[in-house]
Amino acid sequence: MIIVVVSTKGGSGKSTMSQQLAATYFLEKEEPVKLVEIDDENLDSAYLTKSKILSERLPMGASSSANHVIERLMQMTDKNLVVDVGGNRTATNFIAAAGETDFFSMADFVIVPVSNPGQDEENALLTIKAIKQANPSTKIVLAVTRQMAQSQAEFEDVFTRYFRAEELLNVVEKVVFFPQVMAIVHSRALAVTLYEMALSKDSLLPSLSDQMVTAKKSGDTQAAIRYSRIRASVVQSQSVLPFIKACHDTFDLVVQS
Ligand SMILES: Nc1ncnc2c1ncn2[C@@H]1O[C@H](COP(=O)(O)OP(=O)(O)OP(=O)(O)O)[C@@H](O)[C@H]1O
Ligand SMILES: [Mg+2]
Fold first, then answer.
1. What's the total number of domains in the chain?
2. For residue 40, how many other CB atoms are within 10 A of its CB?
3. Which ligand has its closest atom nearest to the C-alpha of 115?
4. 111 and 140: one domain?
5. Ligand 1 atom closest to the CA of 44, numbered from 1
6. Most exposed residue of 87, 111, 178, 223, measured as fewest CB within 10 angstroms of its CB?
C-alpha cells in the first residue's frame, strides 16, 4: 500500500500524521512500513531509532526534479510506503509531477492535515483541489490535528463549529481527528511513536521508575525528574490510543470503499 501525506502549508502536521497515524496503521496490522520523507533539509523521523518504522529521506533539490523523486518512489519494493511530502514548493512540485505521471493512481489514499481554521484550512482546500485536478478519483482523508477535545463527539463539534466543515466534507472521503498531545515530546525522547509508546507501557513504566530511583539515589535530581516526566507521558499516551485506533479504522473504510 501507499499512503501520501501532503499539504502546501508548512507546519500543518504532515510529519506528525505520517509518523503517528499513517505509519502506525501498518504497525497495527503487524506489517512492515517504510516512511519516506521528501525533504531537502532534515529527516523529521530521525528520532525513531527504536521504532519498527523504517525511514528514508528523498531530497527534491534543484538537481533531482519532482519527476525523478516519483520514479524513485516507484522503484521501491517495500510492501507499505508512507510518503511525507515537505511543505510549500516541495508539495506544489510534487502534486504537479504526480499529476503528470499519474502517481496518485498508485496511492491507496492521501492524507491532508489541517491544524487550524483560517489560513491552514484555506491551504488544505487548495491542496485538495490541486490533487483532485491531478487525479479526480484520488481518495482523500482530511486529518484535523492538534484539537483540544476528549471524545469523537467533541471533535466533531469543534469541526462543525469552527471549520468550513460542509465545504471540506464535500471534497474528501473521510475526516479523522487527532488531539493535541504533549506526550509527543516524550515519544521523541523514547525514540518511538505514541502508538508504540502506549503499547509498551508494561515494560516502559517499571524501567522508567528504576531509572528515576537510580538517578535520585546518585544525586542527579534533574535526571530523576526527567524520567518521572517521561513516565507520566507514557501513562498519558494510553488515552491517545483509542483516537489512533479510531483513525486506523477509518483508514480501513477508505481502503475498502
Ligand atoms: N497533535 C499534535 N500534538 C502536539 N504537537 C503537535 C501535534 N501535531 C503537530 N505538532 C507539533 O507541531 C509542529 C509541526 O508539526 P509537523 O512537523 O508535523 O508539521 P509539518 O507539516 O510536517 O511541518 P513542515 O512543513 O515543516 O514539514 C511539530 O513541532 C510537532 O511536534
Ligand atoms: Mg514535516
1. 2
2. 14
3. 1
4. yes
5. 17
6. 223
Q: Where are the alpha helices (DSSP H) in the chain?
A: 14-17, 24-28, 66-75, 88-101, 119-134, 152-162, 165-171, 184-189, 194-199, 201-217, 221-237, 241-256
Q: Which residue range(s) make up the domain with 249?
A: 2-181+240-256
Do 87 and 7 contact (CB within 8 A), yes or no? Answer: yes
Atom of ligand 1 nearest to the CA of 12: 21
pLDDT exceeds cutoff 80 at 63: no
Q: pTM value? A: 0.95
8/132 same-domain check: yes
Which pLDDT tens digit goes with each residue over 94-136? 999 999 999 999 999 999 999 999 889 999 999 999 999 999 9
- Dist. CA 133 → ligand 1 center (Å): 27
Instruction: Verify that 131 and 194 share a domain, yes or no.
Output: no
SS3 142: strand
* Ligand 1 within 6 A of CB of 180: yes
For residue range 184-193, list pLDDT tens digits in order: 999 999 999 9
The span from the CA of 19 to the CA of 25, in Å, is: 9
Cβ-contact 103, 97 below 8 angstroms: yes
Q: Which ligand is nearest to the CA of 236?
A: 1
Alpha carbon 150 to chain centroid distance?
20
Does residue 184 line the site of ligand 1, with CB under 6 A?
yes
Confidence of residue 62 (pLDDT cuts 50, 70, 90): low
Q: Is the CB of 38 under 6 A from ligand 1?
A: no
